[in-house]
Every structure is written in C-alpha cells, then in structure tokens.
Amino acid sequence: MSQVLHISGSLQRGDFTLDVQLDLDLAQPLGIQGVTGAGKTTLLRVIAGLEPAFSGTVRWGDEIWHDPSRGVEVPTFRRGLGVVMQNHPLLPDRTVHDSLIFAIRRGASCESGLSLDDVVNGLQLNDVQSQSVETLSGGERQRVALAQALLVRPRLLLLDEPLSANDSSRRQQIVERLRTWISALGLPTIYVSHAPEELARLSELLLLLESGSVIRRGDTRALLVKGLKGTGVDAEAQADVGAVARVVRRDLQQNTVTIAWDTTQRVLDIDRLTEGSQLWVRPANTSANNSGPLDAPLQPESSEDERQPAERGQSQRLSGDEPNE
Amino acid sequence: MAGDLQALWLTALLAGVTTVLLAPLATPLAWWLARSHSPIRSGVEALVAMPLVLPPTVLGFYLLVILNPESLLGGFWVSLTGESLTFSFSGLVLASLLYSLPFMVQPLQSAFRAVPESVLETAACLGLSPRDRFWSVVLPLSRRGFLTGAVLTFAHTVGEFGVVLMMGGNIPGETRVLSIAIYEHVETLNYAAAHTLALGLVGFSFLSLWLVYRFAGGRIGVVR
After folding, report:
1. What is the domain partition of chain B in residue ranges?
2. What are the residue ranges spanned by the domains of chain A?
C-alpha cells in the first residue's frame, strides 16, 4: 500500500492560519521543525483527525480521512494511529503495566509489531511498571505514552516532542532504539522536535514550518544546518549535525558575549549576537560524520528570540574550539 | 405503628426504584448537556432544572391532568397494564423521575464537564471508540458525580410531599410515604408519632448530605 499522506487546506485559529499543500511520502521517516507557534502540533492534530474544522482534505494512500466537501470524516480511533501529543495526559487511574496492556488490547489485531517486553526494555520502563501513572515524572510519562503509541500497532506514528522531558543521555538511547524499531517495522513516522540531533537521527526528510506554512522541505541534515544558519548551505556543515549554543551573558563594558554549549563557553564580539540568539556549533576535531554519539543541549521550547526572524539571520556556525570571530 | 413501618418501606422502595431508573436515564442527557454546543441546549437545561423552582403542587397538578385514566396517556397506560398512573405506586415513580431529574442530571453534568478534552483525545488516539471511551475513561472519572447524584436523588425523593399529595393521595401500601404519614399524624394531633418520623428524616437527611460532602468532595453542583 502506498504510504503517501496528502494534506491540503487550511485551518484558521484566531490570528494564526495553518495553510498547507503537502504530499508526503512516508516510506522515509519525516521530521518537522519550526519555532513555537509555527503550527507543528496543529499540523499533527489535523493528520490525527483532532481538528474537524480543517477545511481541506487529508488522505492516507487511497483512503480519504477528511474531506468535508464529500462529507467524509474518518474518526481518529479508526485511522490506525500511534500518537504522542505534548499536551495529552495519560489515561488516569492505571498502573504503567495496565496502561500498556490497555494499549495492546485496543490496538490493531495484526500479529506483527513489538512485544511488550521489547518496548518496556527499550523505553526503560522496567522500574516503573507497577507504579500508578499519577506518580510518574514528566519523562517517564512521555515514555509510557510513546510505549502505548507503539503497542497499538499503528499504521502511522505521529510523535510530537515525545522525549523533551527526558535527560539527554536517555534521550539518545531511546532515539537510537526508536530508529531501529521504525526501520525494522517499516513504520511510517512523523517526528516533531526542536532538537536537531533527534531529527537528524530519526528522520530522512524534514519540513520547516513557519507561521503555519512550510517554508522549506528537503534532506534533514542539509536543512537543519541551512535552516539554523539562515544563510547558504555550507558544504562541510551539511554532513554534520552538531550542537546548539546559547548566549548566556552580555558584557556591555567589554563589548563581549559569552556563549555556551555542552560544557564549553566562548566569548565573542557583542555586535554579532544578542541575548537569546542561537548558534550552531560543531567540534573542529570531529570528522564529518553523523553516526557518533550526539551530546548537545536542547534548544528550549520557548525561546522568545526564536520568534524573531531577524535573530535567526544572526545565528551562525562556529568551528568548535576556535570561535569563528 | 405498623402503618408507619409500611410507609417507611414504601418510601425507601420509591426512592430506590427512582434512583436506579434515573441514573441510566439521566446519564445520556447529562452527557449531551455537558458536551453539546447545540443552540437548544440552554432551553433543555432550563427544562431539566424546572423541578427545582416549580412548587411541587404545580408539577403534581399537571401530572394528575396528564396521567389520569381519562386522559390520552393515562388511558393508554391503563389499556396496557390495567393499572392507573394516578393514585398508584408506578405513578409515583414516574412523578419522582421528573421531580428528582435535576438532582441526578446536574451532578453528572458537572462531572462529565470536568473530564478534560485532552483525556478524551488521548483515548481516541489509542483507538477507543466513543462508547469505549465512555465506559473506560469517562465513567471511572465520574464516580463522584454518580455518588452525588444517587445520594441526592434518593434523599430528595424521600422528601417528596407536594407531588405525592396531588397525584398519589394517601393510600396505605401504595402511595402513603413518610412525608404523607407525618402530615396525617399532625392532622390527627398525634405529635408523638409525627416526632418519631420527622426526627428520623432529619437524621437521614443529614447522613445523606454528610455522605456526599465526605466522599464526593463537597462538589454537589446543584443550583438551588
């Protein structure tokens, strides 16, 4: 069956409008990136059937999921989805184990898929299995939601920042596991994230959203660098995905700015940066490959400056230990 | 005394039957009121709340008019069951269902309204059909609403007087409930017997309300 997801139409929400024309071939996992308020979550909600007011069509292969002009609306529960949404709570009054069993029972009856043990081990949920979902930490909750999304044996996996509350080393391990599962099952996946390193590991193609529209679309690694730099593609940088640095201090006397990424701090000339600007850095001594472990700090979800296009123009790539002054 | 015991039993039976019947009847109505954006919703809401403000005698009077064996509805019931809906126990049950409707609907409605949309979305994303969502998610989350609704309905039906008097009369074993029995004791100046029953009802009312506040977090949700 064809794995093309067609979404065309628009959704008005106050002064925000999502307006898309997309044919997405999900034979390769797709990543979606964009600043807060760009419409990433809304787009995912349209695909999941949680936005009945969407005026336009949604098709999965040759199934029409949403087409008001023909009066067609396949309800969410019949779309065969595995979904992790940021603002979706877990179903209350259950232990983790019961929640997972609940998902398995509600899932499609096909045999293929991951076993409970695979998922529990892979998502590091062994220790919390007998706990009530109310007692879990944010990161644990996300992993239970992700486990449920996988255990319902979905035809299409929709993940919206599914690991944002987990610490970086765990996130890396789970991203690797998820990557293995997705490719082993050939599971069509859409992965929304702010974290470039997660997108780089999990997706081949990337959509960049801004103000409800797709502004760029293409190879994930190339786009990540290009998108964050805001300038032309650097051939060397294309092959690599590094870390995001943040401005931590401005010193007006010295006219300097201190930026930090990982455990490193660098001092730069102030004219180049303003508070909250983002930089794209990679270690100079690492050869250009993307298979090594990635240990980059996450961009926080709500950096005010992310909203300002002018700031992004000032973002730049630095070559590791020798800041590109 | 034997008559009073009979009245006690009849009252408990009436309140019990009313509660058991009203819970499933009120549930879909309360769900619709909690979730619908229909323009007729506020009208339906007002209708449901009417028994709260109408004098029970008004309700009883119209029920007497509509349900008496000479009327269309009452006549149909007689031809169906051979029993009148006025001055009978089944008539009282019907009247109590209407009279106590808001006491069941309103707590359920606020309980259903308190179920976050996001929880329902989670359930839909897990593949739960609307019916499955209701049974596996909404009902467990609305336990307190059901407890409140059941206790209030039971207690309110026990306290029914005007409606019963209008359309039930005072037939021992059929329509002579506690409140009617008290009224009769007072009429016949048998204050001692009236005291026994009245004090019993005071205690019972307190106990029911205490139960609601203790176990349902005090969220009664009835506008009175």
Report:
1. 2-215
2. 4-216, 234-319
Give bridge partners of residue A317 from the DSSP assignment. A280
**Which residues of B are less than 8 Å from A107 in CB distance?**
127
Other C-beta atoms lying within 10 Å of the C-beta of residue A110: 9
The answer to whether B117 faces chain A, any CB pair under 8 Å, is no
| ipTM score for this prediction | 0.76
Confirm whether pTM is higher than 0.90: no
Residues in chain A with CB shorter than 8 Å from the CB of B35 are none
Length of chain B: 224
Task: Write the single-letter amino acid at A267.
Answer: V
Closest CA in chain B for residue A51:
B121
Interface contact flag, B126 A76, Cβ < 8 Å: no
Closest residue in A to B122 (Cα–Cα): A88
B141 touches chain A (CB under 8 A): yes
Q: Which residue of B has its CA nearest to A146?
A: B126
Going by the DSSP 8-state scheme, the letter that residue B82 receives in this structure is: S
Per-residue pLDDT tens for B49-108? 999 999 999 999 999 999 888 888 888 888 888 888 888 999 999 999 999 999 999 999
Q: Which of residues 172-201 of A touch B (CB under 8 A)?
A: none
Mutate to test the interface with A, among B120, B121, B126 (most CBs of A within 10 A): B126
A91 vs B contacts (CB less than 8 Å): 119, 122-123, 126, 136-137
Cα atoms found within 13 Å of the Cα of residue B86, Cβ hemisphere only: 20
The residue type of A179 is R
How does DSSP classify residue A307? G
C-alpha to C-alpha distance for A292 and A302, rounded to whole angstroms: 28
Which residue has 């964050």 as its token pair? A228
Contact B146, B152 (CB under 8 A): no
**Low-confidence residues in chain B, pLDDT < 70:** 1, 217-224
Total beta-carbon pairs less than 8 A apart between chain A and chain B: 59
| CATH superfamily for domain A4-216 | P-loop containing nucleotide triphosphate hydrolases (3.40.50.300)
Residue A232 burial class via C-beta count within 10 angstroms: exposed 0-12, middle 13-18, buried 19 and up: exposed
The DSSP symbol for B20 reads H
Q: In sequence order, what DSSP letters do the residues of A136-174 get, joined into one string?
A: --HHHHHHHHHHHHHHT--SEEEEESTTTTS-HHHHHHH
Task: Give me the residue from B122, B127, B130 closest to A89, CB to CB.
Answer: B122
Looking at domain B2-215, which of 2.70.150.10, 1.10.10.60, 1.10.3720.10, 1.10.565.10 is its CATH number? 1.10.3720.10
Shortest Cα distance, chain A CAs vs residue B214, angstroms:
21
The Cα–Cα gap between A136 and A206 comes to 32
CA distance A88 to B118: 5
